[in-house]
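Reading group handout, session on sequence-to-structure problems. Before we discuss, look at one worked example. The prompt was deliberately terse, the way you'd type it at a terminal:

> structure Exported protein

The input record follows.
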Amino acid sequence: MIRTKGKTVMLRTMPAARRLFVQSTLAITGLLAAAAACAQPATDWPTRPIELVVPYPAGGSSDVLGRLLAKPLGEILGQPVVVLNKSGAATAIGTTFVARAAPDGYTLLLADSPLVVNAAVNPAVTYDPVKDFAPVGIIGTSPSFLYAPAGRVKDLDDFIAQAKAHPGRLKAASAGAGTSTHLLLELMQHEAGISLNHIPYRGSAPALTDTVAGIVDGSFSTYASAQPFVASGKLQVLAMTAPQRLPAFPGVPTFAEAGMPGLTFLTWWGILGPDGLPQPIVDKLQQALAQVMKDPAIGEQFVRLSVVAQAGEPQAFAQTLQRDLQRWRDIARAAGVSMQ
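And the output record:
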């Protein structure tokens, strides 16, 4: 009973058992509705264009690979895949953008090995490569190559011999302090027992340019970046970090052959989404990627970039992220490299 405007109104009360039943029913209905709302996007995905973030400027190897994938991937998924270049801060801007995006499948990252290298040497990076992302799959791998100006040395053995004869005299360029090319130089010095004069550049392009010009005596890079200089005879390939020789480079030895097995590394490229990406979306993406990577035309274009195409599984990619992060941390710690 309540009193309102001088009148007394009698209210009928619902029996406690019935009231509990109604409340429980409403609660369950609400939970089911919420679950359905969450499941619906994953079931229907995609219903609008997908952004594939490349954390580099246009024109680099990651950008080229992303654009090779975008069109056929979009055709399979039924929605356009749009490459979005978000470069800067050693890939941290684009990478963090994806890490903080909604895990709805509409913002993806085309990452490469520096995703873990940056985190290994710089505790201040604003993302965790293992915890902040949902791996979809590795799309390709490529070794790094050691280059020298044409005619500067005869081969890798000659390069090592000159470095031993003149400690600290040979200049070696990297794409910047704390980059994978810097760490490879540090690891080579350790493995070969030599001392080089490290010259950090602001990116791989100027480092290669000065190697071609003979301003420095050597540098590490992928073949995709150096191919024009090698083809024109301006750069000499001394060795590569692949576990065995590649058919495309039968005359290029591996570092393992030269007694440096610790210099066995493959740069990878892969697709990730933000952590929390629903499993149905991960599965659908991986299946679409596998279909794209089976296309011989895609494989041929990857080969031109010296990238071995593959269609990796999410779990294998997750293991690669964990393994590489620890390995680069160990290398950086041993070399005393830190960006703190």
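Points for discussion. First: The two ends are 70 Å apart (CA to CA). Second: Confidence is low (pLDDT under 50) at residues 1-14, 17-40.
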